[in-house]
C-alpha cells in the first residue's frame, strides 16, 4: 500500500475523492495536527550552524550601516 500527500486545487476534486473512498478504492487519512507549544525560538534552536549565524549577523550589520548613510 502506498501513501500520498495531495493538494486539492479544484473543489470538485474533493467530491471525487469522497466517491472513490465510498467505493473503497482509497482511504482518506487525515494528517494529525501537532500542537507544538514551544516558542518559535526554542523550536528553531540549532537549525543553523554557529558559522552561518555569524555570517548572517555580519550581513545584517552591513545592511543596517547602508541604511544609515545619508544620500
UniProtKB/TrEMBL annotation:
Protein name: Uncharacterized protein
The organism of origin for this protein: Spirosoma oryzae
